[in-house]
Design brief:
With 141 residues, the protein is α/β, with parallel strands linked by helices. It has a single domain, classed as Phosphohistidine domain (Glucose Oxidase, domain 1, 3-Layer(bba) Sandwich), CATH 3.50.30.10. It contains three helices and ten strands; from the N terminus they run E-E-E-E-E-E-H-E-H-E-H-E-E. Strands 1-10-9-3-6-7-8-2 form an eight-stranded mixed sheet, sandwiched between helices. Strands 4-5 form a two-stranded antiparallel ribbon. Helix 2 links the parallel strand 7 and strand 8. Helix 1 runs parallel beside helix 2. The longest helix is centred in the last third of the chain and has 14 residues. It starts with 6 loop residues before the first strand and ends with a strand.
Length: 141
């Protein structure tokens, strides 16, 4: 029996292709003070997914939260090799996109950043129980 793939067309904020295990965050996350860029661990102890690692995952989060310094944390995570492979949000986040663009410019790689508005974002979260692939703005589970 062949598995049925589901696909969504997302808005691309930062281009790139990626594949990885989905990490679905229940709440927005501020990278500044909420993510250790050296380990990729979610360190915000009030966050439901505190203690999980984002490295090489396709990070699904409703939105970013907080400081403009989040872009520098993402940049440091890319440098350390602990950044997500891609970030998919339900709301456009220029701060996350900035960190990814600067990482791609400085280091030659960084996470793709895509926006998938509701209700498609929720449908993706329900379907993303394993590996997620992103290419040219198309998300496949």
């Amino acid at each position: 029996m062949m598995a049925i793939k589901k696909t969504w067309n997302a808005t691309v904020l930062v281009a790139g292709s990626a594949q990885g295990e989905a990490l679905i965050l229940a709440e927005p996350l501020s990278l500044w003070g909420g993510l250790d860029p050296h380990t990729g661990e979610i360190t915000d102890r009030r966050h439901p997914q505190s203690g999980l690692l984002v490295g090489n995952k396709v990070l699904l989060l409703p939105s970013g939260r907080g400081s403009s310094s989040a872009s520098s944390i993402l940049l440091e995570a890319v440098k350390a090799g602990t950044a997500p492979a891609a970030i998919v949000t339900a709301e456009a986040d220029g701060i996350l996109a900035l960190g990814a663009v600067v990482a791609q410019e400085i280091y030659g790689h960084g996470p793709a950043v895509l926006v998938l508005p509701e209700p498609d974002y929720s449908a993706l979260c329900q379907a993303a129980t394993g590996i997620v692939t992103l290419k040219d703005g198309v998300i496949t589970v």
